[in-house]
Amino acid sequence: MPSSPIDVLSRYLERVSLTDPAFDLPTLAEVLDAVPDPRHRRGRRYRLGPLLALSLLAVLSGATSPAKITRFIAGYDPGLRTQLGLPATIRPAASTLGRLLARLDGDAFDATTCAYLAALTTCHPPETTTQTTTTARTPLLGLAVDGKTLRGSRTSDGVTHLPAAVRHDTQTVLAQRQVQAKSNEIPTFTPLLSSLNLANIVITADALHTQAEHARQIVAAGGHFLFIVKANQPTLHRRLKALPWREAVLNDRTNERGHGRREIRRMKICTTRPGLPFPHAAQAIQVKRRRTDLKPARPPSSRSMSLPACHRAASPMPSSQR
After folding, report:
1. Distances from the Cα of 99 to the Cα of 57, 94, 170, 180, angstroms
2. Which domain holds residue 66?
3. Distance CA 322, CA 318 (A)
4. Residue 266: pLDDT band with limits 50, 70, 90
5. Together in a domain, 67 and 34
6. Out of 20, 208, 218, 264, which could bridge 223 as a Cys pair, Cβ 3.0 to 4.6 Å?
7. Which of 203, 193, 192, 218 is nearest to 107 (CA)?
8. DSSP bridge pairs for 204
9. pLDDT tens profile 117-160
10. Which residues contact 244 (CB under 8 A, 6 or more apart)?
């Protein structure tokens, strides 16, 4: 079952070295200064980095429009604005700020903020206290690749879809890109991971990214992969299904309750056979789920129960019974 947001946030904060976000706000402003400025040189009254840093704080505080963002910026403490290198009485226009944010390079902004978030967290997973062998193995770090639709981004051309690479342990976004219109996530997989060091990294993704080229890219970069195979690849699915799963040992079994259901998972691991039509595949994992709905069945409403009776009363009587 998915973890609660409180548990996820607690695990993330355990690896964050900052104690006061406002204390490191000038550093964030300097980092965001690296984003390409789309404004003309003569039209730059304020630095781009402080504007983006304050706009980011405004959005995190609940601002959903340029007008609300400007009100948040105008309401900040004058000392904080001075610390960021802005005038104490700054009053940006909502229309000007809206045009600036609309012209901003989204991929460059994502790359900058993801690098900043990655710097805030530790680069290594927690160390284990027990070792079964004399030579310690390098721990692996999980990285999930998935895409989500950006809320409130629907236009006449469609919606904005953002594939991202997220750490399993801290839920930190290390890379993110925007899917082009009338496309899907597959072409963005390679550029999404090209800027990351994949050594000792396990890439997990859904069945959409179970592509041979993706596997070759990850292994060539020194990483590992764990992909899902479904019926959309019939040949590979049939070959995996033919493995000797009956003779395989049951490696794990979980029985969990939550969200009104009970779910039992059984997992087996089997070594793949030579000639599997997928590059660098070494092992196959079979996961079987059995889900039971624990919610009581809702009784039919009184209106739905009376409809058949009304229908019978309105039907004409046969002539033999008149």
Report:
1. 19, 9, 34, 21
2. 17-108
3. 7
4. very high
5. yes
6. 218
7. 192
8. 144, 226
9. 877 765 444 443 444 444 567 788 999 999 888 777 677 777 77
10. 270
